[in-house]
Write a structure and sequence with these properties.
Number of helices: 13
Number of strands: 12
Distance between the termini: 69 Å
Number of domains: 2
Keywords: Aminotransferase, Pyridoxal phosphate, Transferase
Helix content: 25-40%
Strand content: 5-15%
Enzyme class: transferase
Oligomer: single chain
CATH superfamily of the largest domain: Type I PLP-dependent aspartate aminotransferase-like (Major domain)
CATH architecture of the largest domain: 3-Layer(aba) Sandwich
Subunit structure: Homodimer.
CATH topology of the largest domain: Aspartate Aminotransferase, domain 2
Protein name: Aromatic amino acid aminotransferase
Radius of gyration: 22 Å
Structural class: alpha/beta
Function: Aminotransferase that catalyzes the conversion of aromatic amino acids and 2-oxoglutarate into corresponding aromatic oxo acids and L-glutamate.
Bound molecules: pyridoxal-5'-phosphate
């Protein structure tokens, strides 16, 4: 085929497409990298807080069955999963809004509450999706530095509320530092936040919490019309690849979230697998307990080596390394462990298979010894 117009044509000029200026201010979301393959070494990706256990056989059976009907749209109202969650949590179904991951629900929350220039308040460091979703919605992220022990500084956060604040995000346990807020301090904080400002308790790692002082978020929600609980099937329930999460919010808020939701955002496989996972929660809880036991084992070993590790309540371990962050991440990578470095703040490493956890402890021990010279 010849086309002599093509041979001497000038390269096409790019169209002057208008993109939003908000994009310029945005960091790209940094996904967990896949593990670097090292000769003779099983590589572990411990950078994304994924569950190391494969899906349960009962969940796989349900997925196979659901796969036969993917020519149909999913149930847009997510009826069966919503009913199952309502029963499990003891709340009316009207209070539940689902989405493609709890990140999807968080997007609904921001778009349902914020106009241009409104403020979303959260601790920093915290979940890196927060500033991205906030900025893309045209709202302004207000980031309050974590306090001592890498914990939320709830006093400073209460003081940072302005008449433009529409949403406050409390991440407990906090990603990436693994610390929780206490029940009493959360209560005192909520007393100070105006009752027309929505407060989201992001409990992506709730199932891994064993601190008796942690808040009962559903009870807090029950008592306060401006409190929303955000949860996910991605972490403890091991469905990260399917994308399904939910909010528990009082009715006017939940209804607004459903309006703000992407139509058909929760796919049919995700709906089916989430229901099957709720039905298999006893089996899944056994796995969660194993991961919590591994977390405790790793944290104890690291402290024994001399690491100053804050109280850890999720499925990962936080190393507050400061300027040594990149060097430690490289040391891990050299041994086939891909961890998640955060600038010059520290490294987050997911609690995974015992072999990966053992290797992490070994690398950390050698790194600390070398650093001390
Ligand atoms: C992983 C995570 C989420 C949500 O993940 P989804 O897969 O979108 O449900 C939400 N919040 C925090 C703090 C997380 O770490």
């Amino acid at each position: 085929m010849t086309d002599d117009r093509a041979t001497d044509a000038a390269p096409p000029t790019p169209l002057p497409v208008r993109l939003r200026a908000a994009l310029d201010a945005l960091p790209a979301y940094t996904p967990g990298r896949p593990a670097t393959v090292r000769e003779g070494l099983v590589a572990y990706k411990i950078s994304s807080n994924e569950n190391p256990f494969p899906p349960l056989p009962s969940v796989l059976d349900v997925l196979r069955e659901a796969a036969t009907a993917v020519n149909r749209y999913p149930d847009m109202a997510v009826t069966a999963l919503t009913a199952a969650l309502a029963e499990r949590l003891g709340v009316p179904a009207e209070r539940i809004s689902t989405g493609p991951g709890s990140v999807g629900v968080l997007d609904q929350l921001i778009r349902a509450t914020c106009d241009d220039g409104d403020e979303v308040l959260f601790a920093w460091r915290s979940f890196e999706a927060y500033p991205i979703l906030t900025t893309m919605a045209g709202a302004r992220p207000v980031m309050v530095p974590l306090g001592p022990g890498d914990r939320h500084d709830l006093d400073a956060m209460a003081a940072a509320v302005t008449d433009r604040t529409r949403l406050v995000l409390v991440c407990t346990p906090n990603n990436p530092t693994g610390t929780t807020v206490g029940a009493a301090e959360l209560d005192a904080f909520l007393d100070r936040v105006p009752s027309d400002v929505l407060v989201v308790l992001d409990e992506a790692y709730l199932e891994f919490v064993d601190d008796p002082d942690a808040p009962d978020a559903l009870a807090v929600h029950e008592a306060r019309p401006n409190v929303v609980v955000l949860r996910t099937f991605s972490k403890a329930y091991g469905l990260a690849g399917l994308r399904v999460g939910y909010a528990v919010a009082h009715e006017p808020v939940a209804a607004a979230l459903r309006k703000a939701a992407l139509p058909f955002g929760v796919n049919s496989l995700a709906q089916a697998a989430a229901i099957a996972s709720l039905e298999a929660s006893d089996e899944l809880d056994v796995r969660v307990k194993e991961l919590v036991a591994e977390r405790e084992r790793v944290v104890a070993a690291l402290r024994e080596q001399g690491w100053d590790i804050p109280d850890q309540q999720a499925n990962f371990v936080w190393f507050g390394l400061g300027d040594d962050t990149a060097a430690f991440a490289q040391a891990c990578d050299d041994e086939g462990l891909t961890v998640r470095p955060y600038g010059t703040d520290g490294v987050r490493a997911t609690v995974a298979e015992p072999e990966a956890n053992d290797r992490l402890v070994e690398v950390a021990g050698r790194f600390l010894a070398a650093r001390r010279g």
